[in-house]
Amino acid sequence: MSKPNVIVIGAGGVGVIAAVSLDFNAKSNVSLVVRSDYGHVKEHGYTIKSCSYGNLDGWRPQTLFGSSEEASNSGTFFDYIVVTTKNIPDGPFQSRVEEVVRPVLESNRKLDSERQSNILLIQNGIDIEKDLFKTFSKQEYNYTALSGVQIVASTKVGRGVIDHIGPENLAVGAFDPSDRNAVEAAKQFISIYLNEGHNMAQFDERVRYSRWKKLLYNAAINTTTALVGLDVPRALEFGVNKQSTEFEIFKPAMREIIAIAAAEGIVLEEKFIDFFTDATRNLIFKPSMCVDMEKGQLMELEAILGNPLRIGKSYGIDAPILSMLYNLLHMLQFKLREQKGLLKFDEQTARIVD
């Protein structure tokens, strides 16, 4: 049986390590879409300092593409379309997840309409799959939608440079657990991804539960560090009496996530509050939203905070800490959008120009 073709779209800290794991396993043909660093990586490869794979100098996957469009013109049918870009539905049109996958999904359909495409979203947040289902008919495009929840401390720290300091743990399941084809595709992906002794990867039949669980960290800690521009240890230590960050922001915000998840029947154990508070307490690591803010990049605000708050509102759940974080970050997101020319503020009228 021929190896499946896998394309990873998104060459940040998460995407590059995903490509490395697939390449190390050697059970698939790996392609990587590299946008901003394409020229550098094509010539020099990646410099990767990895806690799992050691120091890699000049590493490249089998195939590099500068864009999804370039990949779609390659004549290759990609069995797995792995998306590791940031999920920013309020960002530029072309960066939305449905537009990121569109070129490859369209080319797959033209190459072989009877062959199944599998879209794996290794992205933060909840309800991130809905735009896929709204945009692409499953019958017309013959695809499955897979959910990937990844815990990994990996950051792109320079052009073609990746610092991977925390072990990788990937859970993959079907967004729709009743979709048998998606379930089987998720299990197959684990078989080409897991490297015993180097990473952790498992099929997850309760992947929505896992998404809510990861939100405990992201909705409370990732967001707060973005607001204050601090790594987690400093955010904790710089709180009033070294306690206010933990007991008045992090933990109350996590309890609000627990309450919202419970409203839709998902029970998150209280023990995870201490677990996630302590997870990076002694690790000098800035979460992704903090890094995005420092780089002047848009944040995954709607996926991480907007969507859970909307779910909570639909159930009548009050979430004052999360709401405050969201409203403050919403202003910062609009600041970033203005800086990028995605909106215009008229100082004569003191209003956003529609």
TrEMBL record:
Every Ketopantoate reductase N-terminal domain range: 6-176
Gene name in the database record: KAFR0B01030
Taxonomic lineage of the native organism: Eukaryota, Fungi, Dikarya, Ascomycota, Saccharomycotina
Domain Ketopantoate reductase C-terminal: 207-333
Pfam families assigned: ApbA, ApbA_C
One annotated Gene Ontology cellular component of this protein: cytoplasm
Domain of life: Eukaryota
Entry protein name: 2-dehydropantoate 2-reductase
InterPro entries: 6-PGluconate_DH-like_C_sf (IPR008927), 6PGD_dom2 (IPR013328), KPA_reductase (IPR013752), KPR-Related (IPR051402), KPR_N (IPR013332)
